[in-house]
Amino acid sequence: MAAHRSGPLKQQNKAHKGGRHRGRGSAQRDGKGRLALKILSKKVRKELSRVDQRHRANQLRKQKKEAVLAEKRQLGSKDGPLHQVLVVPLHERISLPEAFRLLQDKDTGTVHVNEWGSTHSFMLLCPRLKHRWFFTSARPGDLHTVLDMAKVADTIVFLLDPLEGWDSTGDYCLSCLFAQGLPTYTLAVQGVSGLPPRKQIDARKKLSKAVEKRFPDDKLLLLDTQQEAEMLLRQLANQKQRHLAFRDRRAYLFAHAADFVPSEENNLVGTLKISGYVRGQTMNVNSLLHIVGQGDFQMKQIDAPMDPFPLNPRVIKSQKDPGMAMEICAPDAVADMEEDLKVLMKADPDKQESLQTEVIPDPMEGEQTWPTEEELSEANDFLKKSSKVVKKVPKGTSNYQAEWILDEDGESGGEDEYDDMEHEDFIEEESQDEGSEKEEEEEYETMTMGESVHDDLDDENVDDEAEEKMLEKYKQERLQEMFPDEVDTPRDVAARIRFQKYRGLKSFRTSPWDPKENLPQDYARIFQFQNFTNTRKRIFKEIEEKDVEGAEVGWYVTLHVSKVPVSVYEYFKQGAPLIAFSLLPHEQKMSVLNMVVSRHSGNTEPVKAKEELIFHCGFRRFRASPLFSQHTAADKHKFQRFLTADVALVVTIYGPITFPPASVLLFKQNSNGMHSLIATGSLLSVDPDRMVIKRVVLSGHPFKILTKMAVVRYMFFNREDVLWFKPVELRTKWGRRGHIKEPLGTHGHMKCSFDGKLKSQDTVLMNLYKRVFPKWTYDPCVPEPVPWMKSEISLAVPEVDME
């Protein structure tokens, strides 16, 4: 009997849905053994009423306002550090002595003048305003001094010309200061009263319009009379302070006085005593101290002498003649207070940070255990049985790798082992000697260029050799733009030897590459974090929450810095500023730094990778030879041979660990000794595992074209090279992909198959890759540059049109 089958018109009833009213059994089945929460993982967010929300917002607003007012009251007060003001004239017509004369008013307060070499500074103590100022100056041409002083200045006063505002030197200085990070600043115009009365209003309107590009929504103050100088002082005292992240988390100090005590063993090294006000954070004697431009040092002790510049002038032992108050100098005041010296802290050897910057590599680390007697005897028997074949192989090639290298007759050492070449990776040299001639040849490929074109210049001051080198750089940069990464296959050296460190990749983005493979010897000297981001967060959290013993912010202290060269003290006596920053944990150790930079628009000279550049990274200043690479989110980053102007690149160097955020400025020293700004940016990370991959493109031309087959020539010039690179995938400029099928003849011709028919004007390409590493050329001592002159700086930075 046949079974009944329902027809297409059978009624379909909806399935029953339990909805919210389901039983306990169904809930247990859906839970599938999951347990209920015992502890809430998140805070219960309490819903506030509208009145409570308004009240809470008022409380937060009041707390922020009180914090800002407390910061204003502490800076320059009797218990806080001096309000440090940096005065920078932005035009050559600005008279800096005239501006200082207006600010040094006896009616305003007591003045103490300091003159250290070429740097002029003075203290202004004003009991009426309950404020203490410390005014310093720096010329825009002295770029290192301006940048170093701006790192510790609370306020910068820019002096502008009433007609032009700033000249080319001032514009260059502003570009550097904006890239480093500006603290609180004020704009003052000098010389408006010297103009005719009819032109004063028009000059101020034109100047305000021109200044809007750099300083939008900022007022211009005048500085021509005593009343205008007093208004400027009130503006400085009441301004809201802007914060720089790299200095707010570290203790720092500007030296008002210094002394040097040579050691008994050597007069060239001794103890440097630095006196000044603690700023930023609490200064701990066990932490390391970085002197800008000189290096890292340890502290022995911290003294707490009496404040030589109290707000009440009656405390200072003044002369009988009150008019002589301006002649009191800071070193004299310190000498008077040495009787009341008190030792605040002494360094604890158990808690003090070490000066070790590098890891001492162990040459035996990573070696295998010593083989047993049985293994040695088996190895000797195997060597006796195997036939010995003498071959000419590259330096550093192992026995296994030598089996894959063909003889001149075209036969390998093994039996029919060449057919498995498609499944093997290419030979890579195990030891990477950066100083060898072979490495130099691979780092700087030889390209076939046209003949150099000499400019017929009649200027006697032009250096012909420097001009020739610069012309060659321009031609290489243009060739790199026209034919990216393309190199000519050498005729005198086999391609399998010339490119033995390179490998082929199926996909640059997705193909695996082990970051720990074939590392250079310099990687044994650096430090690496297991998780750099977590370490940075932990250290910053400890700074905010943990109470550190030491000299509090605002105290006048004397730091005893041990093992300092006498050249640092002589440098200070010549008038250069002496600035010290305390280091966070691990910041003295060497690692691999990655920085994101963009090309400065005022400099167009080609900058090649591995050229020595000068870095301003946060509070540090040093020299290094960087690598350039693309800024992408992948695990591999393509190496760039030149610093391009259109996109941001990542600069990779060996350098001391620095926790971001930190600004980065790159300078290049010219042949005349001047430093030109080439790029600006910020610190990205401290990561030795970031892989910079160099690409080399070999090109060939189709000789005979069939349907999907083609004979390609001029990529290689012998049969062995074609067989060696047979597994690597080919591509063309018009988007075709293919492989090498077999060599033809002995002159490097090869039969290739593609996924479509080639065009006769197409070019066949082969991509080869290898990982590159920066050079270890870190040097913390940077030579002083030649001061910029207006006629010279206009060649690098265009003149700003202020109309």
Throw out a few tags for this protein.
single chain, disordered C terminus, 803 residues, 7-stranded mixed β-sheet, 18 helices, alpha+beta, Thrombin, subunit H, 25% strand, Rossmann fold, 6-stranded antiparallel β-barrel
What low-confidence regions span 5 or more consecutive residues with pLDDT below 50? 315-339, 409-460, 790-803
As a whole number of angstroms, the C-alpha radius of gyration is 35 Å
Mean pLDDT: 79
Shape: globular
- The number of helical runs is 18
> What is the level 1 CATH name of the domain at 72-238?
Alpha Beta
Q: Class by helix and strand content?
A: alpha+beta
Largest sheet: 7 strands, mixed
Could you name the CATH topology of the domain at 72-238? Rossmann fold
Strand order of the largest sheet: 2-3-4-1-5-6-7
Helix content: 10-25%
Please give the CATH architecture of the domain at 72-238.
3-Layer(aba) Sandwich
Structure explained in plain terms:
The protein is α+β, with helices and mostly antiparallel strands. Among the domains are: 72-238, 3-Layer(aba) Sandwich (Rossmann fold); 495-507 and 693-771, Beta Barrel (Thrombin, subunit H). The chain contains 18 helices and 30 strands. The strands form three sheets. The protein has a seven-stranded mixed β-sheet with strand order 2-3-4-1-5-6-7, sandwiched between helices. The longest helix is centred in the first third of the chain and has 25 residues, at 50-74. The protein starts with 23 loop residues before the first helix and ends in a 10-residue tail after the last helix.
